[in-house]
Each structure stands twice: as structure tokens, then as C-alpha cells.
Design the sequence.
């Protein structure tokens, strides 16, 4: 990933996380993975449109997860639940 | 052999925190394309949700050099890039592997506004991959009807449901006699991935269309995006196939449907989970409408069976 700062001469954008802001703020419901139930099939990883599930650890990056709920809906083990976060 | 999910490359072209809606099919599709093409690729986009979701300068949400062009050049801009590359390689000014050149264009840009130049590029057999992500409407501008919107679907310009059938764009491209064509579904990501890799390794004009259920435009909960992608295939509303040098091969559940090994899943289920078909549920002649839509699907399946036997 390039990490150049804004180029004064040319209006060029560079790939960076958060181009749409801290999109975790959009979330209404939050996915939580139950490790006991998970079989590491990787379906949640492949279906996440926001690429926020870590391939190795299946850790979810809550700074950017939008809470779409696809991972929970598709998990064959029902290992992911969508919860309402406490204030 | 078909790739398994665990074999998919680690490359992530989609940066976290992009501007697309929660559950966006277009970004998921692009994410899979990034895995198939790797870092050495160049992308052309026309105005669309994908362009809007790139975010604000100085950040960009997708890790490819992306050229944003006007609709009418949906087909020709990538041609120009390929001609320039080929000439620079020939003159020895560039060395190493030539980047994969591909377009990332919505159904509005493909079926309607960009059609003429796409047809011309296919006829010239220009060496790039044309990818259409089909969310069956002009989503970015507020969900207006397109040539890909199916009959009966409500959009902001067809509030009572569209009255006309959609075009059969993949078939239209197939009849340009291009070396590779495929349709894909996000519910079957490894099938989509394998098709992208095949296209990358084929010379000439390649056309891939991926079905992209848009929760915002079609009015369903974002969590259902993959489920609706799957139902479109199992109900026959979206057929999965590929054609190498014109020879059609059906894939996944569509292959089983064509062989008569599985029944179509109820079309009513596919309609009832999407708000854009709500007027069907309210209609006095609901049964009649569903029967008409089902007959159209059965006719398409019969036609494609015969077309594949050529
Ligand atoms: C020539 C021209 N006409 C109209 C527009 C306005 N416009 C911007 S995005 C868009 C919708 C494109 O729809 P589609 O290609 O299906 O992509 P989607 O937004 O659905 O992802 C339209 C009509 C434009 N930018 N240029
Ligand atoms: S889909 Fe479910 S079982 Fe599969 S890896 Fe994710 S949490 Fe685990
Ligand atoms: S809720 Fe959506 S964005 Fe968040 S981890 Fe699951 S699939 Fe990804
Ligand atoms: Mg569209």
C-alpha cells in the first residue's frame, strides 16, 4: 500500500484505509465471533465486502466494520452473532 | 481443478473504510477480482457507485491505478491503454509482464450508455477484460431503471414496476464471437475467481458479468446480499455459464438445472425478500405475474440449452 501524502502539484489519490472515513461509526449492530463454535472455514472472511476480517486470526477490525451482517448470516456454524453495543 | 476458499490469494485491493454502503456487492466483487489479478493490473471505471465509493482525495479506497472515464468510452478507454502498452513493450520501453487491463463498469454503463464502444472493442478483439457488475439499476444516481432491470422491479423511474423485460447482454456479447465470456455470482466466489483467472490468461476480448444484488436499490437487509445472490441462481433468474471460443459450459447449480437434476427453487421466495418486488405481493393478479416471470425463466433456460448444443 502506497502511503504518499497529498501531492501539491497533481490531484492524485493514493490507496489508504479510511477513504470513506472511520466507517465503523456507521455500524448499528456488531458481529461477535464465538471461537468455540468456529470451524475456521473462512466463509466470513471471503464474503466480507469491507475486507475487515483478518485471514489468519479472524479478528474483526471494528474501526471499519460497517455491521452489514453478511458474515453472521453466512456462517454455517452460527458462530457469529450480531449484537447491539453498549454505550 | 477448482480453487478452494483457503487457496485464494492474500492480496487485498479493497482498502478498509471505503465509501460504499454496508453489504455492497460491487466492492466484494472487486475484492475477489483483486485476488485473481494480483498487484499488476490497471483499471478503467465509468461513473458509478464504485467510483463514488473510492472516497475523497488524498485517499483512494482501491489499490489499483484507476482511470475514471466518461460513459461513452466504457469500451474504448481500455483499448487505448492496451494499444499504448503493446507499443511500449514492442519498442522495448517497458519490460516484464504486461499489466492486466480491465474495466469495472455498472450495468448502466454496459447495457445502455457504453454499449456502442464495447461492441466495437469486442469486434476488434482488443486484449482486455470487460467486467460488468450488474446491480440491475443506475444505483449511484438514485436507482433509476436500466436495460438490465428485470420486468416488475420497482425503481425510482418505474415506481409501479418495470413493464419491459431486461436485455440479454451476455448473449449479445457471446454473439460477438469473443474468445472468453462468463457470468458469475458472489454466492460462488471461487467460481468467479476461476473465471477471472481464465480471462486473465486468455488473449483477446474477454467479457465477465457478475450479478450484484444492491441492498440499497433493491430494498432488502444488507445481511441478505449473499443469500439473494444464491437465490437468483437457484431460482433460474441468473444463469451461471462460461464460453471458451463460443462453446458454452454451464456451472454450479445452473449445470444441475440444465441437466434436469435439480428443480428450480420457488421464484416467489426470490421476489418476496426484495422490496423492489413488493407491488407483486400487493397485486390482485399476483399468481399470474409470478407465472409470467417463471415462464420467461423457463423459456430462457430452454433457449440456452439449445444454444449450448450448437
Ligand atoms: C453521460 C452521463 N450521463 C449520466 C451521468 C450520471 N450518472 C453518474 S453515475 C450514474 C449511474 C450509473 O449506473 P451504473 O453504470 O449501473 O452503475 P451503478 O451506479 O449502478 O453502480 C449516472 C447515470 C454521467 N455521469 N454521465
Ligand atoms: S464462517 Fe463461521 S465457522 Fe467459518 S470461519 Fe467464519 S466464524 Fe468460523
Ligand atoms: S458485519 Fe459486514 S463488514 Fe462487519 S465483519 Fe461482518 S461482513 Fe464484514
Ligand atoms: Mg448499476
Sequence:
Amino acid at each position: 500500500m502506497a502511503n504518499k501524502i497529498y501531492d501539491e502539484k497533481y490531484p492524485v489519490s493514493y490507496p489508504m484505509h479510511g477513504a470513506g472515513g472511520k466507517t465503523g461509526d456507521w455500524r448499528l449492530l456488531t458481529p461477535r465471533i464465538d471461537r468455540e463454535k468456529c470451524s475456521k472455514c473462512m466463509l466470513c472472511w471471503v464474503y466480507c465486502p469491507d475486507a475487515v476480517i483478518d485471514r489468519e486470526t479472524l479478528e474483526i477490525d471494528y474501526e471499519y466494520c460497517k455491521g452489514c451482517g453478511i458474515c453472521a448470516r453466512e456462517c454455517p456454524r452460527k458462530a457469529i452473532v450480531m449484537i447491539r453495543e453498549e454505550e | 481443478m477448482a480453487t478452494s476458499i483457503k487457496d485464494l490469494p492474500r492480496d487485498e485491493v479493497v482498502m478498509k473504510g471505503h465509501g460504499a454502503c454496508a453489504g455492497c456487492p460491487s466492492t466484494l466483487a472487486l475484492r475477489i477480482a483483486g485476488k485473481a489479478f494480483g498487484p499488476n493490473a490497471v483499471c478503467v471505471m465509468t461513473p458509478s457507485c464504485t467510483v463514488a465509493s473510492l472516497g475523497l482525495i488524498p485517499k483512494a479506497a482501491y489499490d489499483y491505478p484507476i482511470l475514471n472515464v466518461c460513459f461513452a468510452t466504457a469500451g474504448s478507454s481500455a483499448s487505448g491503454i492496451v494499444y499504448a502498452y503493446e507499443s511500449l513493450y514492442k519498442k522495448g520501453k517497458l519490460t516484464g509482464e504486461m499489466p492486466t487491463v480491465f474495466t469495472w463498469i455498472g450495468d448502466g454503463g454496459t447495457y445502455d450508455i457504453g454499449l456502442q464502444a464495447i461492441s466495437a472493442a469486442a469486434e476488434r478483439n482488443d486484449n482486455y477484460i470487460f467486467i460488468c457488475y450488474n446491480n440491475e439499476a443506475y444505483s449511484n444516481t438514485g436507482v433509476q431503471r436500466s436495460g438490465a432491470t428485470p420486468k416488475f422491479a420497482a425503481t425510482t423511474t418505474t415506481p409501479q414496476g418495470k413493464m419491459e423485460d431486461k436485455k440479454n447482454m451476455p448473449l449479445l456479447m457471446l454473439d460477438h464471437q469473443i474468445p472468453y465470456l462468463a457470468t458469475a455470482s458472489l454466492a460462488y466466489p471461487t467460481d468467479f475467481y476461476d473465471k477471472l483467472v481464465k480471462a486473465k490468461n486468455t488473449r483477446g476480448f474477454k467479457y465477465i458479468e457478475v450479478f450484484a444484488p444492491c441492498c440499497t436499490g433493491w430494498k432488502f437487509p444488507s445481511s441478505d446480499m449473499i443469500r439473494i445472490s444464491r437465490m437468483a441462481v437457484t431460482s433460474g433468474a441468473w444463469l451461471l455459464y462460461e464460453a471458451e471460443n463460443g462453446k458454452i459450459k454451464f456451472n454450479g447449480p445452473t449445470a444441475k438445472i440444465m441437466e434436469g437434476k435439480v428443480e428450480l427453487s420457488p421464484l416467489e421466495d426470490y421476489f418476496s425478500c426484495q422490496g423492489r418486488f413488493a407491488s407483486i405481493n400487493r397485486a390482485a393478479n399476483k399468481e399470474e405475474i409470478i407465472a409470467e416471470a417463471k415462464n420467461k425463466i423457463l423459456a430462457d433456460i430452454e433457449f440456452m440449452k439449445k444454444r449450448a448444443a450448437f
